[in-house]
## 1
Amino acid sequence: MTEEGPTPAASPSLWERDEEVAAVERAIDILRADRSSSGSLLVFRGEAGLGKTALLTETRRIAEARGCTVWSARGGETLRSVPFNVVRQLLQPALVSLMPEEAREYLGDWYDIAGPALGVADPGERQADPQGVCDGLVAAVRRLARRDWPLVLVIDDAHWADQETLRWLAAFAERLDDLSVLLVVARRPGDVTGESARHLDAVSAAAGGPVTTLSALTPDATAGLTRATLGAHADAPFCREVWAVTGGNPYETVELLAKVQDSELEPVEAQACELRALNRSARGGGLVARLEGLGIEATRFAWAAAILGTGISVGLVAKLATMGRDDAVRCAELLRNARILTEPDPAVVPADDGDLEFVHPLIATAVYNSIPDALRTAMHGIAAQVVADSGLGAAMASRHLLQVHPDDDEELVEQLREAAREHVAVGAPDAARRCLERALREPPRPETHARVLYELGCATLLTAPAVTVDHLQSALAMPGLDGAERIEAVFRLSQALLHNDQLEDAVRTVEAEAARLGPGPAQLRLRAVQYMWEGIHAGETSSPGRSERLAELAATCAGRDNSERALLILRGFDAMTHGENAEIVVELSDRALVNGRLAPGLGWTDTEWGLEILMMLASSYTYTDRLDRAESMFTEALRTYESAGWSGGHLALAHAFLGFAHRRRGRLREAESTLRESLRIAERVGRGLPLYWSATCNLVDTLLARGHVDEAWEVAEQYGFAPPYPSTIVLPDPQSVRGRLLLAVGRTQDAVNELEAAEKAANARSHLNPVMAPWALDLARALATTDPVRAAQLASDARRRAERFGTDTAIGEALRCAAALETGQRAVRLLSQAVTYLESSPCQYEHAAARVEYGIAARSVAEINRGLALARSCGADGLVAQARDVLETGRGLR
């Protein structure tokens, strides 16, 4: 067999990599051919030493030779706890070339969101949302990529990348279709678990084809490489032994052949027995023994370099190894000559990232593991101080502090708390969690222990509510949290219980704390929070007389502070759900505003109250036909979250409720688009949460209004829109929407069962608003033929409740329902009245439906056409089809 070797310019580690190199060349040629072409992704997977780094180096060489810009980065085994480490490396070539004002211009609205994570902007005052930061980084790379086309991004050792980078990488890989970039990733199989493994799997899936797995060299390729290195006189038995000793591992083969050259061993069969001993000296214990042979100072230098892991400069290593500059320079030269350290490639590593790096990650790992445990721990402690003294900040020093043994050191606790605050500020709560968990093991002093637990609970609130509950309950059970700090901890605990679907526990938590306090602002706030959680509970657990007590308390409120404003909002929402007169609801809601706007401290990103109270306010406006105010609030929420970079659950809810407002207005196309975006974001956050139900329920409701019944059913099936329902209120009522869906697909008895369950749940909570919980209208229609007496009673009760509530929409919809149970002129008169009310309503879909139904009942072409025009403007395709069918038939029309 012919021994094939790499091109002369390439590394010896590229033997038998022709197919992989060809794939790289094809991808680069496609990238260069058209600026508008889709991006592509290559993933190379292989065990340590199989040539992944060499393949990526060749990728860089080919790309640069063909006029591409190349940015590269590399994960590090000891650097996985440093958030955004790899993505910062990747973007440094672009960032260092920009002046601050240029960076702001290129990153645009994402500058303040992604800038802190990239180290080019100071963190803002608000806690950064991890998902928002991730999206900001995706947007940042996309914008910079357009400037630097054709761009190749190269990431080596992705299995050792920090979790924040992997989250960005997975999101970026999924969005390559509309960005002309080549992304090349190399990783080992395994070596990663949990969230990081999930993100890496997502990257591989985004490649759109099988991941390329690198194999070891064949015996023929090993023989070719041996002869290319040692000379053509290397005989076949010697070459076979090289392959047997190294297993065809390219890195080990190259290192072994270098040792053969250094020892001047003849490459013949008689000397082949020496190869195993030489190979042992190049790895593991043999490498350590060889390092020790260079002397204690060189060993100490190598240890210090392994502790640093990155940014290895002679000066920093000298400080860490406590040696003079001249000795450090001499040791560095010894280690370079021994092929343990080398000078980094300036094309890959920025000039300010150190003078040295390990020749291979296998060597770095072996050296690091060879450090005696106690000494390694002590060196990490010194490294933390060296890093801090270098002005790199507590966050950069924290990776070393995490390795220090607990020793009742209060200063270390404070350093870790400061590092956690820095991590949270840039959108890395998991890194903050690691710091605070380590601080607890120190342990903190009794007077600070509760505060550390509280900070840990706040750091995990967005990602692990169950863990947050444990931490905050522990913090509140010990001394140390007093006054406003304790009230805030109780509120955060109740939020975590809510997010963990323990709403009843959330209610009882704030109720118990409020009872412990005397009258005053703190107690008033907790009472308001209790009423808020009870107000959104979908179960039957609200305390007896709750609405009456809330009404009495709200009657004393003039909106003097945010606690009073919150109580006014809660009273208005409670009145709306109970179907009290809409004017009362609006009056209460208006009193909670300041000059028609949200009060300071009650904004969408303010954490003192959370978003739930504002969603309740805007929902009250929605159902009282003040859709202009509701839509303005939901639009403001969306704009605020986008500008703040909050692109997780908050943004999903903002889209869901804006879609809800569009649906109520009759803008069904806009509603569908907005709700699909809400569902996309909600999918990233996680299924089963209340925000997920809001997106799904509203989308199903909108598709039914559009007449897209099959699509509505597909969405329900795909996203689990079926019992059991969440413990929080979802608007519109999911049981009512589910019942309407079942009616639409012809499952009438199932629909009746679902709507009767909705009736029972609504009555238990006294939710008598026929617009918010419209089960009665659909149930009356479903029973019209099988139980007309009950259907008539349902319609009558719904009309009475609608007239009590008093909005045009409520009354018009009740009249439409009553007309559906009648025939002849009675039906015509009722529909005529429904049209009169609904043409004054802001809900255009309902108006269109009433017009079409009235036109059909009255056999009026003019009225049907008016309804048809309205239906078209709404995007109500089902109504359009119904009107057209009647017009085309034409029988009996006038």
## 2
Amino acid sequence: MKKKSIFFVLFLSIFMLIAAGCGSNNASAPQKENPKEEKKEEAANKEEEAVSGASEEGSYTPYEELKDNYDIVIIGAGGAGMTAALEAKAAGMNPVILEKMPIAGGNTSKSSSGMNASQTKFQTEQGIQDSNDKFYEETLKGGKGTNNPEMLRFFVDNSAAAIDWLDSIGIRLNNITITGGMSVERTHRPEDGSAVGQYLVKGLVTNVQEQQIPLFVNADVKEITEKDGKVNGVKVVFNGTDEKTITSKAVIVATGGFGANFDMIEKVRPDLAGYVTTNQEGSTGDGISMIEKLGGTTVDMDQIQVHPTVQQEKSYLIGEVVRGEGAILVNAEGKRFHNEMDTRDNVTAAINALPEKNAWLVFDSGVKSRAKAIEQYEKMGFTVQGDTIEALAEKMGVPAADLKTTLDTWNNAVTNKNDAEFGRTTAMDNALTGAPYYAIKIGPGIHYTMGGVVINTNTEVLNKDGQPIPGLFAAGEVTGGLHGQNRIGGNSVGEIIVFGRQAGVKSAEFVKAQ
């Protein structure tokens, strides 16, 4: 009987995980005609998310170990939430993490390109000359001058320390590349060049477990409570049925953005109706709504980033690292049409200006060897391949002569370090000459919500008068202001670590002062 029981529990656990991944939150849409239709195509996305959490899934804190009170409640087990928990624990606190999804990671698991940081020890070791001021100015330019200057200054000035902190807990990001809108290699990746997200999540979960920080999944926080003008806990539903009230002296909201909530998106940006989204289905803006009920305010809610390179059928992000390692974009005629390393909004606009509103990302075996995320894209069936440029063109359905001319012209531009056609100046270290050749068909998709709740550099949530709401902190994509009107690729991972750390430190200071 014992063996039968064990097999039944194992089967039930796997079934529940799959069922959760195929839920009806309408996280993304495979076709622009009907973004709210449930999709079997999301299964591949869910499989990848499961990979990031499956090894840890059995080690999440059992429900029966839940306590009625903690020093700090952290809502959300993405990068910001787990980082905050580790810093709070290091400061002597007893924090708890509550995650509404069946696994930890959130949108962090989907991050691919890397983490931007300036003046890092790894840049110095590799002879890369960078400065915080240059990082600041390029990010401000990318955000069209609308970034919150205090938040941005704090972000860049603490970015190198964030890289050091990760390294100190066994998460090393010493492989450096570049993303659009940057002039210097400052996008830090795992040593093998693989996607940053799953590596980061696995490392943070491991540290959370080692520090014995309770992390509950399937824990859906419905309300942040307050008493006498101070936040004092949360109301949460476990496993869809058990309602609990947990008290605390501080709450950190790290619930992510609202990129999977089409109703919220269409209210502020009706022009985005019908786009696919790269967001995991838990990104529904819960934290923003809860904070607004407490008097918190929002900023830049209509600033929603559309990523230019998304595989449309599976709503799957093709990371900027592919272009950062040398890939080019071509249209249905096999011709380049824009500077691939321009900011995301400009590249998106260029693709949308094409009659077909999609394009091909073209690269060679060299790019594939340097951007490990491509292996995942290949496994998921996104790539077409040819031993020659002509063979690739046939697979793509574009004129072979035109694609050959495009690649010859581009390779000459790389050799001469002069892109006379479109003025590209970065990610031109390697020509596309290594067979076999590859291509992925892409189009724009909703990727990131720059807007969110207003915080200060202490990560305190501010009310309409600009005053902190006592005991309430927030970090990550749930907040707004840092990125302005356009986020630079690699800055979101930097944000969750920099401000996640700050939230843990400052909430601990608040609790100690009570």
## 3
Amino acid sequence: MRTYKYILFFNQISIEAIDKVGGKNASLGEMYNQLNPIGISIPNGFAITAEGYRLFRKTNGLEQLLQDLLLSLDTKEYSNLSLIGEKARNLILSATIPEEIRDEINTAYQSLSKQCGTSNLDVAVRSSATSEDLPTASFAGRMESFLHIIGEQELLLTIHRCYASLFTDRAIKYRHDMDFTKIDIAISVGVQQMVRSDKAASGVAFTIDPDSGFENTIIINSIWGLGENIVQGTVTPDEWMVFKPTLANPNVNPILKRQCGQKEFTMIYTDTVAGSPAENNIFNTDTSLEKQKQFSLNDKEVIQLAQWCAKIEKHYQKPMDIEWAKDGLNNQLYIVQARPETVHGKANKQLREIYKLKEKSTLLTQGIALGDKIASGKARILNNPQEGDLLQNGEIIVTDVTNPDWDPIMKRAAAIITNKGGRTSHAAIVARELGTVAVVGCGNATSIIKNGQEITVSCSEGKEGNVYDGILKWEITEQDFSTLKMPKTDPMLILADPERAFELSQYPNQGVGLMRMEFAISNTIKIHPLALCEPEKITDQIIKSEIAALTKGYEDPKKYFIDKLAEAVAIVAAAFYPKDVIVRMSDFKSNEYANLIGGKFYEPKEENPMIGFRGASRYYSDFYRKGFALECEAMKKVRNEMGLLNVKLMIPFCRTVEEGVNVLAEMTKNGLVQGVNGLQVYVMIEIPSNVLMAAEFAKLFDGFSIGSNDLTQLTLGLDRDSALVSYLFNEENPAVKYLIKETIKVAKR
């Protein structure tokens, strides 16, 4: 291979070369050399070094001109940012790339083309600043990248434009925000073999949950075509949540959750026209309805990507933000970029601010919540970043979608609301970095919210962000977990909402003592289980249509119930893994079941549903056993297919020993056998009136729980049999020992 002065091929680059080729190219070189050999596919390429840029700057006499220009920047209000940026870019674009650099670029391009078996290789050209992708900052999206560049002439023009992108308005502003102005920041340009994702799919992945900072999952987003639509937030991507601890086990499926996005547009290439701007080489097409309904990756590909991501994270020893692409010509997956995740990687996870609304009002719109804070102020509807001057400090941006041109504006906003975008869109990434409240992907925000309207944006109520009318009151409490000492007893959480599991798992705990299945059924599934087992009993056409819409894509609607319930439980089990998560099987009362979609066609009317047909008594009845079978299938999937053996099961409202025997028999029929594969089954009982009955319950089940009223009696020492029940079930539990001790003390008085 020829020796170059201003060119380094990827096989010559390591992560130590950030000062020579910038963070992006250093990472690519590191992966190409260290991870390619262990099976992670990285497209080959080369980098024009920062020294090449410095020679370009010196040869054209730009150093002092650029320095003087940047010194004239208004660093308080940034009122002349656009003017300064435009002048700086014009200085760069009017200069000439030195001939010796041009010759080296042409020779390196020819060499790369030959290595890839072609004469004019299709390449991606990316800017890479020498301060980029540091642990404390990311220049992602603030400088230019260009795709589908073919031929020496187009390559040189594109590299020239990359040099100019060091002075985009957003890049200049970001350097000031990050206090990099005293650093001699140079730019390297990466030239990499193009992956033809225009004919397949592409996306991003995080080796940490980007919202909560939970470290045991890998989040993968994917769309059809080029990945720019994900970054811009113009489409809703497919999303998979993969569990790291079971990723290496070939006998289980580590995918906790999958969600099919709309993928409204597909970005593809056009034929390159000589001399045309690089951005004219791509355009967006409407995605067909058929492809919108399809997942853009299959499970095997998702798992392969997740395994690669886990290896990349292990290599760098830090959470990573990764870009990947699938080539539609050879159907192979590739990693095209990786950088450190810069938000949660530097957060103090022991110190938390807890926001809580003290009042509610009319809900205007909802979307994906970013962060867990609350903000309020006047809404400012902006159609594009050129209208940024209209935004007053403390106002809330309401817009269709954002891109990096919005960065200087977003920092002044109290909150950000967009119609479009997902968790990995530009608005989401910047909001996390800035610590700004944001709700993205609302769909209708710009039509529902009025300009100047006072609103409150709440991201403190789970994964869904809510926008309320008016200025509402809220409170903030600060909790430093580092000062908390765990008690001798085992503090376990009572949890209903799976969307908060990752956040709550970071609180001091010893697992989940009670996960209520009802929340997942009523909020996610929404359909009465028997409406999926015996649909012929429903005569209302509107209800039939509702069920058809929710179960769209499922040939067997019962599978919808099983999958959604399994996902909800799996997320909680993964969040607290390997600690116990005790899942209570459904304990709706008959009137609550009737409120589910289709429920009125199945449920009896009871005078007092509180003590009626609920809990254990339903499971083995001819009336509900088909519905209970779906619950059992979901729990089998969580434990046996997904490998989350920390899930234990609880049978609620069990009134007699005979009832307990019947339920265990019904579970066995459905493949949930107590003791097999470590399955433990607990029971929620009414306190028995005699010791013999307590002993019989203890023989049947692995543990027990009692209602709150009975617990009050127990702690007051008014029911000695209750203390004995505790002893029979779990005499080694410190909590039980303490309870018995206190009960005896009260009884002696």
